[in-house]
Amino acid sequence: MIRNIQSEELTVELFSSFRRFQQVTKCWRKIDGQWTVVDNPFVEDWGREQYEFLVQCLRHTLASGGLVCGAFADGALKGFASVESNFFGSKGQYLELSRIHVSSDCRGRGIVRQLMDTGKAWAREQGAQKLYISAHSSVESQAFYHAMGCREAAEISAFHAEKEPCDCQLELML
Predict the structure, then answer these.
(1) What's the CA gap between 157 and 123, in Å, rounded?
(2) How far is it, in rounded angstroms, from Cα 159 to Cα 140?
């Protein structure tokens, strides 16, 4: 079940059944203007510190008028997405899909697609033309985003590119 998450629900305990784990072997990198797959093995596995920071970020998203939604199974959070409320781009066409994650034990069940659809619908209702996504560059993450219809952003946000220089800057038409 996908539903909006309220600020008072945002605690580290909300994420007690959520596992942000990803074993990465290959990532996309832009080298001499060309996208290339490179070896880049690492494991991403969040601990309490990362969840505490996440809770602060998601509370800020809600306080500034953005969206935080979650996918729940048997009352436990198994996925979440957030869309920020501030428009940007040369024509104010973008809203940022700032986060979208599914617990490692629930991937491959269509949850991330439902979260993406919820974020897209909300952004469209706000008047956005496109979602902007500073996306993890792993081959698997990029395969998902491209399957959803994302492409390289027509306008690269310097803020996002500098904040996460290894991310791929994408957009999704609404």
Answers:
(1) 18
(2) 24
Q: Which domain holds residue 122?
A: 2-173
Return d(Cα 48, Cα 13) in angstroms, integer.
10
Nearest one of 64, 74, 75 to 9, comparing CA atoms: 75
pTM score > 0.85 for this model?
Answer: yes
Record the tokens describing residue 166, joined without a space: 């290894």
C-alpha–C-alpha distance, residues 30 and 70, integer Å: 32
Mean pLDDT across the stretch 42-56?
Answer: 95
Write out pLDDT tens, residues 19-33: 998 899 999 999 999
- CATH number of the domain residue 91 falls in: 3.40.630.30
Could you read off the pLDDT of 117-173 as tens digits, one per residue? 999 999 999 999 999 999 999 999 999 999 999 999 999 999 999 999 999 999 999
Q: How many domains does the chain have?
A: 1
The SS3 call for residue 39 is: strand
Q: Are 131 and 93 in contact (CB under 8 A)?
A: no
CB 107 within 8 A of CB 100: no
Residues facing 29 on adjacent strands: 36
Which pair of structure tokens corresponds to residue 40? Answer: 């880049």
